[in-house]
């Protein structure tokens, strides 16, 4: 059985999770009191979003489409890993916040998670910029 994390340990892990999912933590405050986590402030995406740490390998994507004569035509597209990573990372803010919230909730000692952003509001499962 693992021990419950202290509030300061939870705060550190929450900050790391936000960075992992490409959120800038400069304008966010993270409060933790007896395992109740509140993240509040102005939510911004990291300026390094999709930077790719210099990786520039490429990958070829093959797709097929029908030409005007009814024949299948092969189309090859080359994308760099950097481009592919950026496209994957650029998934919606809602999806990334859901993942952050889920991972925070799974931390030992966390009792609740609450987001209070000045520039986003939650509508159903989605986060909308205000």
Question: Care to describe what's here?
Answer:
The protein contains 3 helices and 9 strands. Helices cover 28% and strands 37% of the residues. The chain has a domain at 7-46 and 91-129: Histidine-containing Protein, Chain: A (2-Layer Sandwich), CATH 3.30.1340. With 130 residues, it is α+β, with helices and mostly antiparallel strands.
Structure characteristics:
single chain; 130 residues; alpha+beta; Histidine-containing Protein, Chain: A; three-stranded mixed β-sheet; two-stranded antiparallel ribbon; 28% helix; 37% strand; elongated
How large, in whole angstroms, is the Cα Rg? 20 Å
How do the strands of the widest beta sheet line up side by side? 2-3-7
Report the CATH architecture of one domain.
2-Layer Sandwich
Question: Which residues form runs of ≥5 with pLDDT under 50?
Answer: 86-90
Shape: elongated
Biggest sheet details: 3 strands, mixed
Number of strands: 9
| Ends distance | 43 Å
The number of helical elements comes to 3
- Average of per-residue pLDDT values: 81
Helix and strand element order:
HEEEEEEHHEEE
CATH topology name of one domain, in short, is Histidine-containing Protein, Chain: A
- Indicate the proportion of strand residues: 35-45%
User: What is the class of one domain in the CATH system?
Assistant: Alpha Beta
Write the SSE topology.
Elements: H1 7-20, E1 23-24, E2 28-33, E3 36-41, E4 44-45, E5 58-66, E6 72-80, H2 81-89, H3 93-105, E7 112-117, E8 120-123, E9 126-129
Helix pairs in contact: 1-3
Write a compact overview of the structure shown.
By secondary structure, the chain is an alpha+beta fold. The protein has a domain at 7-46 and 91-129: 2-Layer Sandwich (Histidine-containing Protein, Chain: A). It has three helices and nine strands, in the order αββββββααβββ.
């Amino acid at each position: 059985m693992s021990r419950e994390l202290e509030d300061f340990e939870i705060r550190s892990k929450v900050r790391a999770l936000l960075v992992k999912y490409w959120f800038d933590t400069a304008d966010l405050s993270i409060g933790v009191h007896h395992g109740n986590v509140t993240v509040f402030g102005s939510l911004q995406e990291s300026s390094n979003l999709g930077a790719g740490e210099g990786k520039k390998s490429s990958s070829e994507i093959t797709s097929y489409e029908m030409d005007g004569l009814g024949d299948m035509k092969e189309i090859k597209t080359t994308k760099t890993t950097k481009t592919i990573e950026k496209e994957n990372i650029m998934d919606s803010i809602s999806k990334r916040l859901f993942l952050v919230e889920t991972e925070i909730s799974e931390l030992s000692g966390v009792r609740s998670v609450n987001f209070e952003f000045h520039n986003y509001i939650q509508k159903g499962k989605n986060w909308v910029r205000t």
